[in-house]
Predict the 3D structure of the following.
Amino acid sequence: MHISLPIDKELNKTLKEKVVHHRERFKNLFKARYLEMLPSLIKYKNAHEVSVDFMKVEVALRNGYDVVIGETKNRNIQVIGYATSKLTSNNPEDLWSTKRLRHGDIKFIIPDYLKLDYYSEISHQDECTTGNFTVLRNKTLNYVSDYNILDHYVDELAEIVLSRYSISMQVKVTTLFLGEPNDETLLQIISDIYNGNPYIPASLLFDPEEQIYHMNNEHVAQNFQELKREYQNKISELNNMLGLNSLAVEKASGVSDTEAKSNRAYTTSNANIYLDGRNNGLEKLNKRYRLKLEAMYNDDVVSELQELEKVEDKKGGEPSNDNDTV
């Protein structure tokens, strides 16, 4: 959305609004991009065995739906709806229940002519020999949503981006002007300098020697590298929470292979939270219908993120030797 600022505002108010809009715009862009990426993180092996659009399944799971995959009258295995109840022995959150989900526990999305006369959840209680549908969940236990995770890290990243944006302005403005509040001549001079005007008209009452003070703030630019490093670290933390492998540490001298993989156990555990929620249901479906479906992380997406991190790390640090993984 294009934001038009009135031309009669003082420059300090205009810059303040620019900073605020910059932060909010980053938050919206970054969160939206990750929400777009989430459905692509997990793919399904042997998906050709069933008539299921697993991309739509991923979108539904990430939005909190427990997706029901089952048999139809034409003997296809496809998405037939979503579960309206979590009270079932197949839900790990329901520790002591012996109940199975039935026809009335499903919100159907298929037409009536494809529905079977009776639906019963496949269960390990009878070694998966009966039943005609299973339920896929986003996570085994769902105490925090993906949206909350994103919101937390987006807020932290936005503050880092805001600091970088503010520093870029501070480096640009290296001169202090002394004068009366709301001095239109002084404000016009400041505006012209900020906008790069090579010719600046001024009143005869304006004395450059008394009213202009040159500030030495070149050291402020040195903070860019540290902010960039912290930005990368926060993205790595976010990726790890989502089960994506990323660099465990980041430093100017490069990262060794051991250091890069030092958080692999934590990342794998986070990945299993999502994979187990899907494979728990797929395993029962596989056993009932002799299929070989399996949810796994999309290696293409993971490898692209890793390559991006390597490039950014190399930009921010010194060249490493052959034994370093950057």
Notes: Residues 1-8, 316-326 have pLDDT under 50 and may be disordered. The chain is about 45% helix and 10% strand. The first helix runs from residue 11 to 37.
